[in-house]
Amino acid sequence: MPNINLSQAKRAKNDEFYTQWGDIEKEVQAYLEFNPDAFRGKTILCPCDDPYESNFFKYFALSFNGLKLKKLIATCYVGSPIANVELSLFDDESAENKTTRKPHKIEITEVPDLNQDGGADLADVKLLLASDRNHLTRLKGDGDFRSEEVTKLRDEADIIITNPPFSLFREFLAWITEADKQFLIIGNMNAITYKEVFPLIKENKMWIGATGNGSDMVFAVPKGTEVAEKDREKAARLGYVGDYTRIGNSCWYTNLDHGRRHLPLVFMSMKDNLRYNRKLKGKEAYTQYDNYNAIEVPFTDAIPSDYNGIMGVPISFLDKYNPEQFAILGATQRGCHDEVPDTKKYDEYWEVKQNGEKTGSSGGKTNENANLIGNDGKKNYFINKDGRIIQSAYQRIFIKHRRLTK
């Protein structure tokens, strides 16, 4: 792939991005700081992770006793390009079997100090597996998370934790939520806008995780994967040299509570924002949408503290969203007309490029976007026979202050 990121991964069907230990540890610690017993007595399933190669399995195996887990389960799916790279899992493992990479699972309910070196570590996990082969078994099927075998493991588990195949994020989330399980997974920040995802966020059944959001995350990739040089260099600057790439639009999704989402945000008044906020330099007033009874707030830190109406904010707002402070009403392109009524349709408009060339599309394609009067000179716009011009804002979430509307 010439340029690897989460949205392109879906199109290219390149699902092989492997999470770093440090990112997992940092995220999990945030939940423990909020609730030290967050994982006590829980069964954790990592359903997309070769047990020997996955940092998810390694982290939770090493932390098994400290977190006071009940059980850890990890499964490997057929064709995983890193499965069985380091270790043979079975006595009859042959070169042919290693090439086909048989799907398997590992289940552990304890990690004793078998080598008696003073602490349980990954060496003890390997000794545990070697001493009792019942911990490790081959799966009858292909190890796909939707298979009957893995679905039964899902039903047994309390928490699902993994970096799922990027091209199957929607299906994977549905697979989790239909069983009403807790989860901690990685996905594309733009998944917020998916019709399968946004309702969960709006209903406070799912939210952005505690760390790594809005910043680059580094992932290992299978040997030989083509990585954009700029992404390889960025990963190297972050300390990862070799088969790694960085992805700037990835984030954690979860329904596990953490302290960050309860921190109150502090904002300036509308008057002070217009006077002092450099991101609003030159503006005399907040812009009203042409087709929604709401104002445009292009940056989260420009939310006015004293405005009691509806505001359209970028999806990055959810990285700082406090459900006690704000109510989410809807999102553009997500059927938000009932709670944020639109006043205008653009079926009689047509789309135009910045060079004046018509695209052939009617204005109907922007009916559910938040639209602003005028042309910023940066992207396509829409015009009608009277010369009236409007332009779509990027995806917006509509919010209101809870305090001001009680």
The side-by-side strand order for the widest beta sheet comes to 5-4-3-2-6-7-11-8
Summed up, the helix count is 11
| Percent helix range | 10-25%
Mean pLDDT: 84
| C-alpha end-to-end distance | 51 Å
Count structural domains: 2
How many beta strands in the DSSP annotation?
20
Strand content: 15-25%
The coarse overall form would be elongated
* Major sheet attributes: 8 strands, mixed
Parts with pLDDT < 50 across at least 5 consecutive residues: 1-13, 81-91, 93-100
Cα-atom Rg, whole angstroms?
24 Å
Strand pairing plus helix content: what structural class?
alpha+beta
Layout of strands and helices, then pairs:
Layout: H1 6-12, E1 18-19, H2 21-34, E2 43-46, H3 55-62, H4 64-67, E3 71-75, H5 95-100, E4 104-108, H6 122-131, E5 136-138, H7 148-156, E6 159-162, H8 169-177, E7 182-188, H9 198-202, E8 207-208, E9 217-220, H10 229-237, E10 244-247, E11 250-254, H11 270-276, E12 295-296, E13 311-314, E14 326-331, E15 350-352, E16 358-362, E17 371-373, E18 381-383, E19 389-392, E20 396-401
Parallel strand pairs: 2-3, 2-6, 6-7, 12-13
Antiparallel strand pairs: 1-9, 3-4, 4-5, 7-11, 8-11, 9-10, 13-20, 14-20, 15-16, 15-18, 17-19, 18-19
